[in-house]
Amino acid sequence: MLSNQPLAERLRPRDLEGYFGQPHLVGPDSVLRKIIESGNLPSFILWGPPGTGKTTLAGIIATQLKRPFYQLSAVNSGVRDVRESIEKAKSARFFDQPNPVVFIDEIHRFNKSQQDSLLGAVEQGIITLIGATTENPSFEVIPPLLSRCQVFILKPLDDEVLRLMISGALKKDLHLRKYRITIAGDEALVRVAAGDARKLYNALELSVAMELKEAGEDGEVVITDEKVLNHIQNNLVLYDKNGEMHYDIISAFIKSIRGSDPNAAVYYLARMVEGGEDVRFIARRLIILAAEDIGLANPNALMLAQSAFEAVNVTGWPESRIILSEIAIYLALSPKSNSAYMAINNGQGLVKETGNLPVPLHLRNAPTKLMKEQGYGKDYQYAHNYDNNFIYENYLPREIEGRVLYNPGKNNREDEFRSRLRDIWKDKYGY
Predict the structure, then answer these.
(1) Whole-structure pTM value
(2) CB-CB contact of 157 with 189 (8 Å)
(3) Which structural domains are found in the chain, ordered by start?
(4) Is the pLDDT of residue 237 over 60?
Protein backbone atom coordinates (compact mmCIF):
# COMPACT_ATOMS: atom_id res chain seq x y z
CA MET A 1 0.00 0.00 0.00
CA LEU A 2 1.18 3.52 -0.77
CA SER A 3 1.47 6.20 1.90
CA ASN A 4 -1.51 8.29 2.95
CA GLN A 5 0.68 11.34 2.47
CA PRO A 6 0.51 12.47 -1.18
CA LEU A 7 3.55 11.85 -3.34
CA ALA A 8 3.85 15.57 -4.09
CA GLU A 9 4.22 16.28 -0.38
CA ARG A 10 6.65 13.41 0.21
CA LEU A 11 8.90 14.68 -2.56
CA ARG A 12 8.64 18.38 -1.77
CA PRO A 13 12.20 19.77 -2.18
CA ARG A 14 13.95 21.08 0.92
CA ASP A 15 16.66 23.12 -0.79
CA LEU A 16 17.37 24.88 -4.08
CA GLU A 17 19.50 22.00 -5.33
CA GLY A 18 16.46 19.71 -5.28
CA TYR A 19 14.09 22.33 -6.70
CA PHE A 20 12.79 21.62 -10.21
CA GLY A 21 12.28 24.27 -12.86
CA GLN A 22 12.35 28.10 -12.83
CA PRO A 23 16.02 28.49 -13.86
CA HIS A 24 15.32 32.14 -14.74
CA LEU A 25 14.63 32.73 -11.02
CA VAL A 26 16.82 30.30 -9.09
CA GLY A 27 19.41 29.11 -11.60
CA PRO A 28 23.06 30.24 -11.43
CA ASP A 29 23.37 34.05 -11.60
CA SER A 30 19.57 34.44 -11.67
CA VAL A 31 17.87 37.39 -10.02
CA LEU A 32 16.11 35.65 -7.14
CA ARG A 33 19.07 33.40 -6.37
CA LYS A 34 21.32 36.45 -6.05
CA ILE A 35 18.81 38.02 -3.66
CA ILE A 36 18.72 34.85 -1.56
CA GLU A 37 22.51 34.58 -1.47
CA SER A 38 22.80 38.23 -0.42
CA GLY A 39 20.54 37.59 2.57
CA ASN A 40 18.71 40.88 1.94
CA LEU A 41 15.26 39.51 1.29
CA PRO A 42 12.58 42.00 0.13
CA SER A 43 8.87 41.36 0.25
CA PHE A 44 7.75 39.79 -2.99
CA ILE A 45 4.95 37.97 -4.77
CA LEU A 46 5.33 34.71 -6.68
CA TRP A 47 2.92 34.66 -9.61
CA GLY A 48 2.41 31.52 -11.65
CA PRO A 49 0.09 28.63 -12.48
CA PRO A 50 -0.62 25.84 -9.98
CA GLY A 51 2.04 23.23 -9.33
CA THR A 52 5.01 25.36 -10.36
CA GLY A 53 6.62 25.45 -6.91
CA LYS A 54 5.50 28.73 -5.33
CA THR A 55 4.86 27.37 -1.84
CA THR A 56 7.92 25.14 -1.99
CA LEU A 57 10.17 28.00 -3.04
CA ALA A 58 8.93 30.24 -0.22
CA GLY A 59 9.68 27.51 2.33
CA ILE A 60 13.13 26.85 0.90
CA ILE A 61 14.03 30.55 1.03
CA ALA A 62 12.95 30.92 4.66
CA THR A 63 14.85 27.75 5.63
CA GLN A 64 18.02 28.71 3.76
CA LEU A 65 18.05 32.17 5.34
CA LYS A 66 17.11 30.76 8.76
CA ARG A 67 14.06 32.99 9.05
CA PRO A 68 11.02 32.18 11.23
CA PHE A 69 8.31 31.10 8.79
CA TYR A 70 4.58 31.67 9.24
CA GLN A 71 2.22 30.30 6.61
CA LEU A 72 -1.39 31.28 5.95
CA SER A 73 -3.83 30.32 3.23
CA ALA A 74 -6.09 33.10 2.03
CA VAL A 75 -8.83 30.51 1.47
CA ASN A 76 -9.46 29.96 5.18
CA SER A 77 -7.75 32.90 6.92
CA GLY A 78 -9.18 36.24 7.92
CA VAL A 79 -7.91 39.56 9.28
CA ARG A 80 -7.65 38.07 12.77
CA ASP A 81 -5.38 35.27 11.51
CA VAL A 82 -3.19 37.80 9.72
CA ARG A 83 -2.84 39.94 12.83
CA GLU A 84 -2.06 36.92 14.99
CA SER A 85 0.69 35.89 12.57
CA ILE A 86 2.12 39.41 12.63
CA GLU A 87 2.11 39.41 16.44
CA LYS A 88 3.91 36.06 16.45
CA ALA A 89 6.42 37.46 13.99
CA LYS A 90 6.99 40.48 16.26
CA SER A 91 7.65 38.26 19.25
CA ALA A 92 10.04 36.12 17.18
CA ARG A 93 12.22 39.09 16.28
CA PHE A 94 15.44 39.62 18.10
CA PHE A 95 17.71 42.65 18.17
CA ASP A 96 19.42 43.21 14.80
CA GLN A 97 17.98 39.96 13.42
CA PRO A 98 16.36 39.69 9.95
CA ASN A 99 12.57 39.80 9.64
CA PRO A 100 10.44 36.68 10.00
CA VAL A 101 8.75 35.56 6.78
CA VAL A 102 4.95 35.52 6.54
CA PHE A 103 3.82 33.47 3.56
CA ILE A 104 0.29 34.03 2.21
CA ASP A 105 -0.84 31.33 -0.21
CA GLU A 106 -3.46 32.41 -2.77
CA ILE A 107 -3.09 36.03 -1.70
CA HIS A 108 -5.42 37.05 -4.55
CA ARG A 109 -8.32 35.69 -2.49
CA PHE A 110 -7.73 38.26 0.27
CA ASN A 111 -10.11 41.20 0.11
CA LYS A 112 -8.99 44.81 0.55
CA SER A 113 -9.33 44.88 4.34
CA GLN A 114 -7.35 41.68 4.69
CA GLN A 115 -4.60 43.03 2.48
CA ASP A 116 -4.68 46.34 4.35
CA SER A 117 -3.96 44.44 7.57
CA LEU A 118 -0.63 43.34 6.06
CA LEU A 119 0.41 46.75 4.81
CA GLY A 120 1.60 48.31 8.08
CA ALA A 121 3.78 45.36 9.03
CA VAL A 122 5.39 45.32 5.58
CA GLU A 123 5.95 49.08 5.60
CA GLN A 124 7.52 49.05 9.06
CA GLY A 125 9.75 46.10 8.28
CA ILE A 126 8.17 43.91 10.95
CA ILE A 127 7.76 41.06 8.47
CA THR A 128 8.97 40.04 5.05
CA LEU A 129 5.89 39.14 3.04
CA ILE A 130 5.94 36.41 0.43
CA GLY A 131 2.65 36.06 -1.42
CA ALA A 132 1.71 33.35 -3.89
CA THR A 133 -0.94 33.81 -6.55
CA THR A 134 -2.22 32.21 -9.72
CA GLU A 135 -3.83 35.52 -10.71
CA ASN A 136 -2.27 38.68 -12.11
CA PRO A 137 -1.30 40.65 -8.98
CA SER A 138 -1.89 43.91 -10.85
CA PHE A 139 -5.61 43.12 -10.64
CA GLU A 140 -5.78 41.28 -7.32
CA VAL A 141 -3.32 42.99 -4.96
CA ILE A 142 -4.05 46.49 -3.67
CA PRO A 143 -1.65 49.11 -5.16
CA PRO A 144 -0.07 50.20 -1.81
CA LEU A 145 0.88 46.60 -1.03
CA LEU A 146 1.90 45.76 -4.59
CA SER A 147 4.18 48.82 -4.74
CA ARG A 148 6.12 47.46 -1.76
CA CYS A 149 6.62 44.02 -3.27
CA GLN A 150 8.65 42.75 -6.16
CA VAL A 151 6.85 40.33 -8.48
CA PHE A 152 8.53 37.16 -9.72
CA ILE A 153 6.82 35.13 -12.44
CA LEU A 154 6.97 31.32 -12.40
CA LYS A 155 6.50 29.38 -15.62
CA PRO A 156 4.83 25.99 -16.21
CA LEU A 157 7.34 23.16 -15.94
CA ASP A 158 8.59 22.03 -19.34
CA ASP A 159 8.40 18.43 -20.59
CA GLU A 160 12.06 17.71 -19.90
CA VAL A 161 11.73 18.75 -16.26
CA LEU A 162 8.54 16.69 -15.85
CA ARG A 163 10.30 13.58 -17.20
CA LEU A 164 13.18 14.12 -14.79
CA MET A 165 10.64 14.34 -11.98
CA ILE A 166 9.07 11.02 -12.99
CA SER A 167 12.36 9.15 -12.97
CA GLY A 168 13.42 10.93 -9.78
CA ALA A 169 10.21 9.95 -8.00
CA LEU A 170 10.78 6.25 -8.68
CA LYS A 171 14.30 6.49 -7.26
CA LYS A 172 13.81 8.84 -4.33
CA ASP A 173 10.38 8.09 -2.89
CA LEU A 174 10.62 5.57 -0.05
CA HIS A 175 7.23 4.05 -0.90
CA LEU A 176 7.56 3.79 -4.68
CA ARG A 177 11.02 2.27 -4.29
CA LYS A 178 9.45 -0.77 -2.62
CA TYR A 179 7.85 -1.89 -5.88
CA ARG A 180 9.05 -2.99 -9.29
CA ILE A 181 7.78 -0.13 -11.45
CA THR A 182 8.55 0.32 -15.12
CA ILE A 183 7.55 3.42 -17.08
CA ALA A 184 6.87 2.06 -20.57
CA GLY A 185 5.50 5.39 -21.73
CA ASP A 186 5.55 8.80 -20.10
CA GLU A 187 3.83 10.93 -22.75
CA ALA A 188 0.40 10.67 -21.11
CA LEU A 189 1.81 11.60 -17.70
CA VAL A 190 3.50 14.66 -19.18
CA ARG A 191 0.39 15.70 -21.12
CA VAL A 192 -1.91 15.24 -18.12
CA ALA A 193 0.45 17.27 -15.94
CA ALA A 194 0.44 20.22 -18.36
CA GLY A 195 3.36 21.88 -16.58
CA ASP A 196 1.99 21.20 -13.07
CA ALA A 197 4.20 19.17 -10.72
CA ARG A 198 1.34 18.30 -8.38
CA LYS A 199 -0.78 16.98 -11.25
CA LEU A 200 2.17 14.90 -12.43
CA TYR A 201 2.78 13.30 -9.05
CA ASN A 202 -0.94 12.69 -8.45
CA ALA A 203 -1.32 11.04 -11.86
CA LEU A 204 1.77 8.89 -11.32
CA GLU A 205 0.74 7.83 -7.82
CA LEU A 206 -2.83 7.10 -8.88
CA SER A 207 -1.67 5.01 -11.83
CA VAL A 208 0.75 3.01 -9.67
CA ALA A 209 -1.90 2.46 -6.98
CA MET A 210 -4.45 1.19 -9.50
CA GLU A 211 -1.92 -1.14 -11.14
CA LEU A 212 -0.84 -2.50 -7.76
CA LYS A 213 -4.44 -3.56 -7.12
CA GLU A 214 -4.23 -5.82 -10.15
CA ALA A 215 -0.60 -6.91 -9.95
CA GLY A 216 -0.47 -7.37 -6.18
CA GLU A 217 2.13 -6.00 -3.79
CA ASP A 218 4.82 -8.33 -5.16
CA GLY A 219 3.94 -7.96 -8.84
CA GLU A 220 5.61 -5.84 -11.46
CA VAL A 221 3.90 -2.59 -12.35
CA VAL A 222 4.16 -1.40 -15.95
CA ILE A 223 2.90 2.13 -16.61
CA THR A 224 1.82 2.83 -20.20
CA ASP A 225 0.21 5.88 -21.77
CA GLU A 226 -3.05 4.00 -22.28
CA LYS A 227 -3.18 2.91 -18.64
CA VAL A 228 -2.51 6.40 -17.36
CA LEU A 229 -5.31 7.93 -19.42
CA ASN A 230 -7.69 5.16 -18.43
CA HIS A 231 -6.98 5.54 -14.71
CA ILE A 232 -7.29 9.33 -14.81
CA GLN A 233 -10.62 9.21 -16.65
CA ASN A 234 -12.05 6.59 -14.33
CA ASN A 235 -10.92 8.35 -11.15
CA LEU A 236 -11.55 11.97 -12.02
CA VAL A 237 -12.88 12.91 -8.59
CA LEU A 238 -9.91 11.38 -6.82
CA TYR A 239 -7.54 13.04 -9.24
CA ASP A 240 -9.20 16.38 -8.65
CA LYS A 241 -9.27 16.19 -4.87
CA ASN A 242 -7.20 19.39 -4.57
CA GLY A 243 -9.19 21.38 -7.13
CA GLU A 244 -6.65 20.88 -9.88
CA MET A 245 -9.33 20.84 -12.62
CA HIS A 246 -9.64 24.60 -12.04
CA TYR A 247 -7.76 25.50 -15.21
CA ASP A 248 -9.21 22.63 -17.23
CA ILE A 249 -12.78 23.74 -16.49
CA ILE A 250 -12.17 27.41 -17.28
CA SER A 251 -10.42 26.31 -20.48
CA ALA A 252 -13.43 24.22 -21.52
CA PHE A 253 -15.75 27.12 -20.61
CA ILE A 254 -13.85 29.61 -22.77
CA LYS A 255 -13.51 27.19 -25.69
CA SER A 256 -17.23 26.40 -25.58
CA ILE A 257 -18.10 30.10 -25.86
CA ARG A 258 -15.49 30.56 -28.60
CA GLY A 259 -17.11 27.61 -30.37
CA SER A 260 -20.59 29.25 -30.09
CA ASP A 261 -22.09 26.47 -27.92
CA PRO A 262 -24.20 28.11 -25.17
CA ASN A 263 -25.24 24.73 -23.74
CA ALA A 264 -21.68 23.62 -23.08
CA ALA A 265 -20.81 27.11 -21.81
CA VAL A 266 -23.60 27.01 -19.21
CA TYR A 267 -22.62 23.46 -18.19
CA TYR A 268 -19.02 24.45 -17.44
CA LEU A 269 -20.23 27.63 -15.76
CA ALA A 270 -22.41 25.45 -13.50
CA ARG A 271 -19.36 23.28 -12.72
CA MET A 272 -17.50 26.37 -11.55
CA VAL A 273 -20.47 27.71 -9.59
CA GLU A 274 -20.92 24.39 -7.78
CA GLY A 275 -17.17 24.23 -7.14
CA GLY A 276 -17.15 27.63 -5.43
CA GLU A 277 -15.02 29.37 -8.06
CA ASP A 278 -14.19 33.05 -7.54
CA VAL A 279 -16.91 35.02 -9.35
CA ARG A 280 -14.44 37.75 -10.38
CA PHE A 281 -12.14 35.17 -11.94
CA ILE A 282 -14.96 33.98 -14.22
CA ALA A 283 -16.13 37.50 -15.07
CA ARG A 284 -12.61 38.68 -15.85
CA ARG A 285 -12.05 35.77 -18.23
CA LEU A 286 -15.25 36.75 -20.05
CA ILE A 287 -13.90 40.28 -20.59
CA ILE A 288 -10.75 38.83 -22.14
CA LEU A 289 -12.79 36.49 -24.33
CA ALA A 290 -15.04 39.32 -25.52
CA ALA A 291 -11.99 41.20 -26.81
CA GLU A 292 -10.00 38.22 -28.08
CA ASP A 293 -12.66 36.02 -29.70
CA ILE A 294 -15.58 38.33 -30.53
CA GLY A 295 -13.85 41.64 -30.96
CA LEU A 296 -14.93 43.82 -33.85
CA ALA A 297 -17.57 41.35 -35.03
CA ASN A 298 -19.66 42.66 -32.12
CA PRO A 299 -17.98 45.51 -30.19
CA ASN A 300 -20.92 45.63 -27.77
CA ALA A 301 -19.77 42.29 -26.36
CA LEU A 302 -16.80 43.89 -24.62
CA MET A 303 -18.96 46.60 -23.06
CA LEU A 304 -21.48 44.04 -21.83
CA ALA A 305 -18.73 41.80 -20.43
CA GLN A 306 -17.31 44.81 -18.57
CA SER A 307 -20.79 45.65 -17.26
CA ALA A 308 -21.21 42.05 -16.11
CA PHE A 309 -17.88 42.24 -14.25
CA GLU A 310 -19.03 45.37 -12.42
CA ALA A 311 -22.43 43.82 -11.71
CA VAL A 312 -21.10 40.64 -10.12
CA ASN A 313 -18.75 42.70 -7.96
CA VAL A 314 -21.70 44.44 -6.30
CA THR A 315 -24.05 41.45 -6.32
CA GLY A 316 -22.19 38.41 -4.99
CA TRP A 317 -23.36 34.80 -4.83
CA PRO A 318 -25.78 33.27 -5.56
CA GLU A 319 -27.37 35.98 -7.73
CA SER A 320 -24.18 36.53 -9.73
CA ARG A 321 -24.62 33.13 -11.34
CA ILE A 322 -27.61 34.55 -13.26
CA ILE A 323 -25.57 37.50 -14.56
CA LEU A 324 -22.74 35.19 -15.59
CA SER A 325 -25.17 32.84 -17.30
CA GLU A 326 -26.70 35.71 -19.28
CA ILE A 327 -23.36 37.09 -20.48
CA ALA A 328 -21.95 33.62 -21.23
CA ILE A 329 -24.95 32.81 -23.43
CA TYR A 330 -24.75 36.22 -25.14
CA LEU A 331 -21.04 35.81 -25.89
CA ALA A 332 -21.56 32.26 -27.15
CA LEU A 333 -24.25 33.45 -29.56
CA SER A 334 -22.26 36.48 -30.77
CA PRO A 335 -20.45 36.40 -34.14
CA LYS A 336 -16.76 35.71 -33.67
CA SER A 337 -13.61 37.51 -34.77
CA ASN A 338 -10.05 37.39 -33.47
CA SER A 339 -8.84 40.13 -35.81
CA ALA A 340 -7.97 42.58 -33.01
CA TYR A 341 -6.07 39.84 -31.15
CA MET A 342 -4.16 38.88 -34.30
CA ALA A 343 -3.49 42.54 -35.15
CA ILE A 344 -1.67 43.25 -31.89
CA ASN A 345 0.24 39.97 -32.23
CA ASN A 346 1.26 41.00 -35.73
CA GLY A 347 2.23 44.44 -34.46
CA GLN A 348 4.41 43.06 -31.68
CA GLY A 349 6.02 40.64 -34.10
CA LEU A 350 6.81 43.49 -36.49
CA VAL A 351 8.33 45.57 -33.68
CA LYS A 352 10.56 42.67 -32.66
CA GLU A 353 11.54 42.16 -36.29
CA THR A 354 12.29 45.79 -37.18
CA GLY A 355 13.22 47.38 -33.85
CA ASN A 356 12.55 50.99 -32.93
CA LEU A 357 12.07 52.59 -36.33
CA PRO A 358 12.06 56.41 -36.46
CA VAL A 359 8.66 58.08 -36.45
CA PRO A 360 8.09 60.03 -39.70
CA LEU A 361 9.00 63.71 -39.19
CA HIS A 362 5.55 65.01 -40.19
CA LEU A 363 3.95 62.98 -37.34
CA ARG A 364 6.31 64.14 -34.62
CA ASN A 365 5.33 66.66 -31.98
CA ALA A 366 7.14 70.00 -32.21
CA PRO A 367 6.91 71.77 -28.83
CA THR A 368 10.12 73.79 -29.32
CA LYS A 369 11.47 76.15 -31.99
CA LEU A 370 14.49 73.91 -32.59
CA MET A 371 12.25 70.93 -33.31
CA LYS A 372 10.22 72.97 -35.77
CA GLU A 373 13.42 74.04 -37.52
CA GLN A 374 14.41 70.39 -37.82
CA GLY A 375 11.15 69.60 -39.61
CA TYR A 376 9.16 68.09 -36.78
CA GLY A 377 5.46 68.24 -37.67
CA LYS A 378 6.14 69.86 -41.06
CA ASP A 379 3.58 69.13 -43.78
CA TYR A 380 1.30 67.21 -41.41
CA GLN A 381 -2.20 67.17 -42.89
CA TYR A 382 -5.05 67.42 -40.38
CA ALA A 383 -7.62 64.83 -41.47
CA HIS A 384 -10.63 66.83 -40.24
CA ASN A 385 -9.85 69.60 -42.73
CA TYR A 386 -10.71 67.30 -45.64
CA ASP A 387 -13.83 65.68 -47.07
CA ASN A 388 -15.10 62.74 -45.03
CA ASN A 389 -12.41 63.56 -42.43
CA PHE A 390 -9.79 61.71 -44.43
CA ILE A 391 -6.63 62.53 -46.39
CA TYR A 392 -4.43 59.96 -48.10
CA GLU A 393 -1.28 60.07 -45.96
CA ASN A 394 1.53 57.82 -44.73
CA TYR A 395 1.54 57.11 -41.00
CA LEU A 396 3.93 54.15 -40.71
CA PRO A 397 7.71 54.48 -40.67
CA ARG A 398 9.07 54.54 -44.23
CA GLU A 399 10.78 51.14 -43.82
CA ILE A 400 7.47 49.33 -43.23
CA GLU A 401 5.11 51.46 -45.30
CA GLY A 402 2.17 49.41 -46.55
CA ARG A 403 2.59 46.55 -44.05
CA VAL A 404 -0.75 45.02 -43.03
CA LEU A 405 -1.31 44.19 -39.36
CA TYR A 406 -5.12 44.25 -39.19
CA ASN A 407 -6.96 41.76 -41.39
CA PRO A 408 -10.75 42.15 -41.10
CA GLY A 409 -12.56 39.02 -39.97
CA LYS A 410 -15.22 37.25 -42.00
CA ASN A 411 -18.40 38.68 -40.50
CA ASN A 412 -20.96 41.30 -41.48
CA ARG A 413 -19.51 44.16 -39.47
CA GLU A 414 -15.93 43.63 -40.57
CA ASP A 415 -17.02 43.12 -44.16
CA GLU A 416 -18.13 46.76 -43.92
CA PHE A 417 -14.74 47.69 -42.44
CA ARG A 418 -12.96 45.93 -45.32
CA SER A 419 -15.06 47.79 -47.85
CA ARG A 420 -14.28 51.14 -46.24
CA LEU A 421 -10.55 50.35 -46.08
CA ARG A 422 -10.53 49.50 -49.78
CA ASP A 423 -12.42 52.69 -50.56
CA ILE A 424 -10.14 55.09 -48.71
CA TRP A 425 -6.74 53.41 -49.02
CA LYS A 426 -7.16 52.02 -52.55
CA ASP A 427 -4.31 49.53 -53.13
CA LYS A 428 -2.03 50.79 -50.34
CA TYR A 429 -2.76 47.90 -47.94
CA GLY A 430 -4.09 45.34 -50.38
CA TYR A 431 -7.56 45.09 -48.87
Answers:
(1) 0.61
(2) no
(3) 11-153 (3.40.50.300), 159-239 (1.10.8.60), 246-333 (1.20.272.10), 357-425 (no CATH)
(4) no
